[in-house]
Write a structure and sequence with these properties.
Largest sheet: 8 strands, antiparallel
Oligomer: single chain
Low-confidence stretches: 8-33, 38-52
Structural class: mainly beta
Mean pLDDT: 82
Number of strands: 12
Helix content: 10-25%
Strand content: 35-45%
Strand order of the largest sheet: 1-2-3-4-5-8-9-10
Radius of gyration: 22 Å
């Protein structure tokens, strides 16, 4: 009897050890950087086949879902505008009945503009952005926004292209800042997305569109 009990205890110990070796410990949780991220630490990306990941198409762009395993899918806009190839990589959160502007997206603060990692915009040629015509050289940049209020927005191009949220954002690394005025549209966008128009980049979320004019620029 004692021998059988000993064997059972040994088997139980081995089972517990096996389970613990195959369990991944995570530090999950939410944070409050504009309230539009899913987790504190980046989730591993699973790149989906492009043929099954196309979420939206326009005349001069397409949007591909590159990770749909997280609450705010990671997407990438790929297109051309003003003589340049443009990609915009971003997290696409949903409204889910929440108050967006002045609530989830606070006024007067730098916003990551989406969820999880900050938006990354890449252009193959120098471009001029905004009504100010600020030149942004070819390359990749972190894209942030500051809504002063519902109508008035500042668009930021930052030389640190790979950032998690806006936690490490530094104004000293800004390449350009431009301003724009939002417009209200009837078609409600449940998820945040970027599109390309004939003359610029547009951010759609909820009932707002935030347009940014784009023009060709020569290399300096």
């Amino acid at each position: 009897m004692r021998k059988q009990l000993t064997q059972l205890l040994v088997l139980a110990g081995l089972l517990i050890f096996s389970v613990s070796c195959n369990t991944t410990q995570t530090d999950g949780g939410t944070v409050t950087d504009a309230g539009t991220e899913d987790t504190v630490a980046p989730e591993p990306e699973t790149v989906l086949p492009q043929t099954s990941g196309v979420a939206m198409q326009g005349d001069n762009y397409e949007i591909v879902v590159i990770n749909d395993s997280i609450k705010s899918p990671r997407k990438e806009l790929r297109g051309s505008l003003a003589g340049a190839d443009i990609t915009i990589n971003y997290g696409s959160p949903a409204v889910n009945g929440r108050e967006l502007y002045g609530g989830l997206v606070p006024y007067g603060k730098v916003w990551r503009t989406g969820a999880n990692e900050a938006v990354r915009i890449t252009t193959s040629a120098p471009l001029k952005f905004g009504k100010e015509g600020k030149t942004v050289p070819a390359g990749s940049y972190g894209l942030f926004t500051i809504p002063a209020d519902r109508d008035n927005w500042t668009i930021i191009f930052n030389k640190e292209a790979d950032q998690w949220g806006a936690y490490d954002y530094s104004e000293a690394a800004d390449v350009a800042r431009v301003t724009t005025t939002s417009r209200t549209e009837d078609d409600f966008s449940e998820r945040m997305d970027f599109t390309l128009s004939d003359d610029g980049v547009e951010l759609h979320w909820g009932d707002l569109v935030i347009p940014v004019q784009v023009m060709a620029a020569t290399s300096e």
